[in-house]
Amino acid sequence: MIPETLVFDDKSDLVATASSRFVDLVTKAQADHGVASVVLTGGSNGIAILRALAADSGDVDWSRIELFWGDDRFVPADDPERNYGQAREALLDHVPVDPARVHAMAPSDGEFGDDIEAAAASYASVLTRTSAGRVPHFDLHLLGMGGEGHINSLFPHTAATAETEKTVVAVEDSPKPPPRRITLTLPVVNRSKAVWFLVAGEDKAEAVAAAHTGAHAADWPCAGAHGTDETVWFLDRPAASHL
Questions:
Q1: What is the pLDDT of residue 28?
Q2: Backbone phi, then psi, for 69, in 5-degree steps?
Q3: Which of 98, 105, 134, 190 sits 20 to 30 Å CA-CA off 167?
């Protein structure tokens, strides 16, 4: 499937378009099958979209949406770098979500303590529990991306990126701090109906070009992610400069 690539003059236009399409996709999913399932991402663009949705989420019924995270730092619950905490501040504290449908990854001072493997296994069980015992087909998986092409906490030439069976893994040695993280893997990302990349900045241009020209996922993890129905790249002009 050929990805859809949208290029914007600035980041504000990127965020506005992505948040508007988020509303369209989620409301359609809710109309089609009752509850929409969405995987959130961190990073400046991912959080900016959540802030835009807090200001105007249109017809989204926030009580009928299952929210997950693609990855998170395995740090204490009050650490400001946790994707979950940033999402709460940007969006979740401002809309009527059902707390039972907000599925955060465990922090390092949570119920599993410092046992990151147990925390990762627990999140894998959350995925199947919320999807009638099966690995879910998310309606939407949002992705940020690093300059070396990492998505979630899947970095080039790592065991997490090469994983083909597990849906969730613990990362002990992330090259980007903090080193300990929990992440969804490519097999579960690629079961998502829609995968959207939210990318800005010239430092991302080489990775964007690699993904668009069929690079190997081991070298550029972003190249290994795609949706079953659609893959959309939301780019600012600097990020698209090598296309």
A1: 98
A2: -125, 140
A3: 98
Number of residues assigned to the chain: 243
What single-letter amino acid sits at 238? P
What residues in the chain have per-residue pLDDT under 70? none
Residue-wise pLDDT tens digits, 19-38:
999 999 999 999 999 999 99
Helix (H) or strand (E) holding 171: strand 168-171
The Cα 163–Cα 166 span in angstroms is 7
* Cα–Cα distance measured from residue 88 to residue 104, given in angstroms and rounded to the nearest whole number: 10
Question: Percent of the chain beyond pLDDT 90?
Answer: 96
Using CA atoms, how far apart are residues 142 and 160, in angstroms rounded to an integer?
19
* Chain segment 177-193, per-residue pLDDT in tens: 999 999 999 999 999 99
Q: What angle do CA 74, 79, 98 make, to 5 degrees?
A: 80
Per-residue confidence (pLDDT) for residue 131, from 0 to 100:
83
CB proximity list for 55: less than 8 A, separation 6 or greater: none
- Tell me whether residue 60 is exposed, middle or buried, using C-beta atoms within 10 angstroms of its C-beta: 0 to 12, 13 to 18, 19 or more: buried
The candidate with the shortest Cα–Cα distance to 226, out of 197, 199, 184, 183, is 197
Distances (CA, A) of 155 to 9, 190, 243: 28, 16, 22
Residue 194 β-bridge partners = 230
**Per-residue three-class SS string for 177-205:** CCCCEEEECHHHHCCCCEEEEEECCHHHH
